[in-house]
Amino acid sequence: MNYRSTRLTAPIVTSAQAILNGLAPDGGLYLPLQIPHFDLTYLQALSYPQRATHILQAYFDDLDPVALKEGVETAVKRFDTSAIVPVTPCGSQWLLELDHGPTAAFKDVALTLLPHLLRIAKAAVHDDSVTHILTATSGDTGSAALAGFAGEEGFLIDVFYPSEGISTIQRCQMTTVNAPNVSVSAIHGNFDDAQNAVKKVFEQAHRFRTPLSSANSINIGRLFPQVVYYVSTYLDLVNAKVLSMGQSVDVAVPTGNFGNILAATLAKLGGVPIEKLICASNTNHVLTDFIATGHYDRNRPFHVTSSPSMDILVSSNLERLLSLLGGGERVNTWMKELNEKGSYTIDSDLLHTIQATFDGEWITEDEVLMTIAKAYHTDHRLIDPHTAVALAAAQRHPSSRPMLVASTASPFKFPATVLHALNQPVDSDDAVNLHRLETISGVECPSALKASLKAPIVHTQTLSPSEIIEHLLRKEKP
Question: In b/e form, how buried is each residue of 352-362, taking b as 16+ CB within 10 angstroms?
């Protein structure tokens, strides 16, 4: 399987090269020349690791299949349930529980595997050098990347997170990681500032002796493992006789950078009968507006919300969708306009193609709180604010088809917000909030989250986005 850049001006590469590069040299994102199509009947009888191995072999056919199988099997051992991604009812919807990994967020599904994929890719191209992983995070990617790469021989990792807006627990999950190959820095600004700065580093990769790669969803090694859980969840519902094989479903996904919902799109293109994809946004609803109008405009106020992992105004993976659905050479023009003017408008034919599959909804902060309360009091489910955004969006779309809702993080990552929604006292100390939430709900907090609050903070540096590249170059000086 070979890969091209969404901007069409970089050389075509193998999957191993695409994984190692992270971002294409022309600033575009890699896509396969063909989208694999899967035999759902064959996959139905397989376990999650077997399904994952089969699906990823189709995307990464130049990687050692034995090593890939072993990498998947090693990664899934880090989850607290053999189902990896259980699917459970919540009212009339079905929740895809994506929070059972080591950092209690959906990013774990891919980032427990990414170090193995990178190591296998390096073997495929006979590369024994150290790889420097760069990661911008809006809250969850950073901790999941650190859980994957901390202490791993052959890798350095730098994580950059917004100095304001993320939860206390998200911050502690990153700043307490103590390993010799790890560096974590706050940045003055928001996620978009961090992401743009990291992309600029890749544009100047020639200045670095150490090869660079990414743990963000710009990397296909991060993106394609997420396709697996949409395929697998559909088959689990068929096996549970909730669905009959071939019956269509709708999927609601809380998304800011568009990676998680793009993975669902790839599952649909690969043969999963997904009818509608509900793109659920918070008050930073640039994606909702785009789906409605075809005009993408980042020139707007940035809101810090209770769902910080979605506080994003520049959605990188949307570029992949435009390319997949026929954007062609126009993608390069639109991305240039976004970079220079902060906005672009797609053609009406492409907009109609997008609207045939996607609906956009955005959810207010008050609605987030009401949805958390309703899920708890009516449906006896404890959910986090990101899941609440998707659940509220799904509830606006009554359908004769079953609705799957991506539940992307543990509610214990945001205990103050959840307690506030449940009309409970909120303490300034999140350790107290965790205990209080456990007590009132009868649900046990993931032990790793408790441990992160007690661990000593070892990373205290704050940078401006403009300082990131020099910060990284200084590390290379002898």
Answer: ebbeebbbbbb
Residue 371 domain flag: yes
Phi-psi category of residue 120: left, alpha or beta, with phi > 0 → left and psi -120 to 50 → alpha: alpha
Look up residue 175 and give its two tokens: 């700043």
Rounded to whole angstroms, the Cα distance separating 225 from 234 reads 15
Number of domains in the chain: 1
Has 477 been annotated as catalytic? Answer: no
347 in a domain, yes or no? Answer: yes
Check which CATH number belongs to the domain holding 258 and give it.
Answer: 3.40.50.1100
Domain that holds residue 268: 87-102+226-454
pLDDT, tens digit (0-9, with 9 covering 90-100), for 2-17: 999 999 999 999 999 9
Tens digit of each residue's pLDDT (9 = 90 or more) over 334-369: 999 999 999 999 999 999 999 999 999 999 999 999
Would you say residue 326 lies in a domain? yes
Q: Is residue 424 part of a domain?
A: yes
Question: pTM for the whole thing?
Answer: 0.95
Catalytic-role residue among 77, 107, 122, 241:
107
- pLDDT higher at 397 or 13: 13
Q: Is the pLDDT of residue 478 over 90?
A: no
